[in-house]
Amino acid sequence: MKILVISSSLRLGSNSGLIAAEFARGAVESGNVVEEISLKGRQIGFCTGCLSCQETRRCCIADDSADIIRKMHDADVIVFASPIYFYGLSGQLKVLLDRSNPLYGTDYRFKDIYLILTAAEDEAATPDRAVSSLQGWVDCFDRSRIAKVIFAGGVNERNAASGHAAMKNAYETGKEIGER
What is the pLDDT of residues 37-90, one digit of tens each? Predict the structure, then answer.
């Protein structure tokens, strides 16, 4: 399987990035081809809503999103990793999702979508709005689904997730993809 892992945190030593790396490690060990992309340092502008992408199947804005969207199109599995800010997805991930409009109506390959979330808060409902936001995107791609959400609450400081149970969960989840 071809797996694309997209980490959206801009922080060095990010918790969501650490957990995403564990997912990738498990997936690689099971024989999958994994590519990890960080949105840190990428230039991804806001969607202007011109909808020209619906005719051309590509965005008219020249920035780093075109390459990422092409890789999303060709992936069998997509993993999004995001810190939770104000109970939602990171802004940079949301902008990328908005810019992925050229995928709509294409012969995209992805089916399973995984979501890795981290937050300072550790309440059971903390990830709900972030999951709901991604579900809105997934609903536009009728062959896809959110296969699993991995949440690490109570991790605020850099590298705080290194001992969190979500690390093992992510590794095992990645490993299971190759065992199907």
Answer: 999 999 999 999 999 998 898 899 999 999 999 999 999 999 999 999 999 999
Q: How far apart are CA 22 and CA 171, in angstroms?
A: 5
Q: What are phi and psi of 15, to 5 degrees?
A: -70, -45
Domain with 69, as residue range(s), is: 2-177
Query: Rounded to an integer, what distance in angstroms lies between the CA atom of residue 148 and that of residue 80?
Result: 11
SS3 content of the chain, % helix, strand, coil (to 5): 40, 20, 40
CATH number at 129 reads: 3.40.50.360
pTM, full prediction: 0.96
Rounded CA separation 121/142 (Å):
32
